[in-house]
Amino acid sequence: MIGTAIILGLVTAALIVIEYAGxxxxxxxxxxxxxxxxxxxxxxxxxxxxxxTLELAFLGATSIGAVIPPDAMIGTILGTAxxxxxxxxxxxxxxxxxxxxxxxxxxxNFHYGYIVSLFQRRADKLAEQGDYRGxxxxxxxxGLTMAAILGVLVTVSFAAGSDVMSDILxxxxxxxxxxxxxxxxxxxxxxFSMLARTMLSKSNIYIFICGFAVVAxxxxxxxxxxxxxxxxxxxxxxxxxxxxxxxxxxxxxxxxDF
Length: 258
Prior knowledge:
One of its GO terms (cellular component) is plasma membrane. By secondary structure, the chain is an all-alpha fold. The chain is built from 9 helices and no strands. The protein starts with a helix and ends with a helix.
């Protein structure tokens, strides 16, 4: 049990380092985190199912200014690990993921609010001294500190709460499980609606309506929808590029003395 907890902590830290050192490659998304945990704990299918479910649930949860959403990756890692360890249903992960994600947010806020500010003051002094190598080391140290904090959080949480969480999950009544199944069915709609609020506008709402109509009345499979959407996106992007190039050429021709 302790060994599994340590491995989960190391995986958490590694995912964070890869995510930010690699230039935001989205490896910390729930679908990826759940898959990795499922693979490590010998139940890849459950890991993928939980990861995909939580991916939809957190689909529209994005940072806006200083407002940081609950940490979906930590919630997914611990939720998946607890469920697989207890042999519970994938739906039970939602009971754990959201509170755990909110707990991780407290630690992230502490890091951003206090630890990062200390590093920033030190970086200002190093900048005044022209110590660019020191700033680079400080930058990496600050990021690794975040990875270490969340890695320790996952290790301690799983080691201390695995047996307790197993008992809690096994004690969930059948009617609650049924309610969770219904809730899981609603989460994709909630996550998509949150995402749509940030994307939809008067200039593109007609595309959404068109896509909805195509799916609803043609019974097109998901792969077909993805291909259709990709082609449409490429066409629209190329049209926008052509408009920009045409405008630039026209403007250049008017102002060109030759």
